[in-house]
Design goal:
The complex is a heterodimer of chains A (about 230) and B (about 110). Chain A is α/β, with parallel strands linked by helices and about 230 residues long. Helix content of chain A is about 40%, strand content about 20%. Chain B has helices at about 1-15, 40-50, and strands at about 20-30, 60-65, 65-70, 75, 95-100, 105-110. The chains are: A alpha/beta (about 230), B alpha+beta (about 110).
Chain lengths: ~230, ~110
């Protein structure tokens, strides 16, 4: 046996994922397809948000969904009722989507539809406020949901998720009159963690805030298409 | 994260001829502002490599402090959750992160058989 050698490599542990994410992004760009990564804890309302959003959005823009779920296709089945292309990605024991899974999902999507015909791809990540924040998938923008039933402190407890997000949707705001919840404290905690994030208050029951959210998406699609 | 670490090690070893080396230490730099809990990474790595070519390797972790820069006065500071990550000097929100997002294999100590 020889003497020990130290190989100083300074290599990012996530470099393989980052490399695949970059390849995904190039593919999205070649298809002129805007990709949003939708993330939140379980039960914050991602699937319901997409159901309502796509009812209107799919009339204006050709839309598709990659639906990440750990063990079932229940959410994908809900979205398929909207008659848009939906590809379920079952992650098994993995608590997040990674760039390879999204690449696989995109290949399946390519069998359903020519992505050149699409304007927007919404990727619903697995419900989790930790790991999805670290794994790039090739998205153009990250959208994080936070429901008011989760508490004002969540941006401080899960800062990376809210730091990484381009847009934060505060969901279930119709429950505000029934809860001892300080939305200004939540907004202050969001601003502490991520002063640059856009924030929209939204309710899937009253549909309040959906106009702002739809407007945000539409502007992003049009700007992306015009670049 | 453990899977990503092992895949990175596999990729590194392919260039070295895996059969002719023994990895003694994998020296990581992990930032405080990441989703990685060092002890959990060590435990899951040790469990995952049992019986593999990395079985005898040891993980060492250098924790990189979470440091931000106050966007008002440019002073460096260590953001704290209790203070909402704001700068203690000017009470400004966390704009710029200087360090703490590292997830790196800094170096690998190995022997040739």
């Amino acid at each position: 046996m020889h003497l020990p050698i130290s190989d100083k490599i300074e290599l990012n542990i996530l470099h393989q994922n980052s490399h695949q994410a970059e390849k995904n992004k190039i593919k999205f760009n070649n298809y002129n397809l805007l990709c949003l990564n939708i993330m939140s804890s379980p039960g914050a309302g991602k699937t319901r948000l997409l159901e309502i959003t796509l009812e209107d959005l799919s009339k204006k823009f050709h839309s598709a969904v990659l639906e990440g779920d750990m063990t079932t296709n229940l959410d994908a089945a809900r979205l398929e009722k909207l008659n848009i292309p939906v590809v379920p990605i079952t992650t098994g024991r993995a608590c997040h989507l990674d760039a390879n899974m999204v690449s696989g999902g995109l290949k399946l999507l390519e069998k359903k539809i020519n992505p050149d015909l699409l304007d927007i791809l919404l990727v619903e990540n697995v419900g989790n406020l930790v790991c999805p924040a670290e794994f790039e998938i090739g998205e153009h923008f990250k959208v994080a949901l936070l429901s008011i039933t989760e508490g004002e402190d969540k941006p401080l407890k899960y800062p990376i998720m809210f730091r990484e997000a381009d847009l934060i949707l505060i969901t279930k705001v119709d429950l505000l009159p029934h809860l001892n919840f300080d939305i200004n404290e939540l907004k202050s905690n969001i601003a502490s963690t991520n002063p640059r994030a856009n924030v929209i208050e939204i309710s899937s029951i009253t549909k309040s805030g959906f106009d702002l959210w739809q407007d945000w998406i539409s502007k992003k699609i049009l700007k992306f298409k015009n670049n | 994260m453990t899977k990503c670490l092992i895949l990175s090690m596999e990729e590194w070893a392919e260039k070295k001829n895996k059969k002719k080396i023994v990895v003694e230490k994998i020296n990581l730099k992990i930032g405080e502002f990441t989703c990685v809990e060092p002890i959990s990474l060590i435990n899951t790595f040790n469990a995952a490599v049992l019986g593999s070519w990395l079985d005898s390797s040891e993980i060492t972790i250098e924790t990189i402090p979470f440091e931000g820069k106050c966007s008002k006065c440019n002073r460096l500071y260590f953001p704290k959750k209790e203070n909402g990550y704001k700068s203690p000097c000017c009470n400004f929100n966390l704009e710029e992160i200087i360090s703490g997002r590292e997830l790196k294999i800094a170096s690998i100590d190995f022997k040739e058989k």
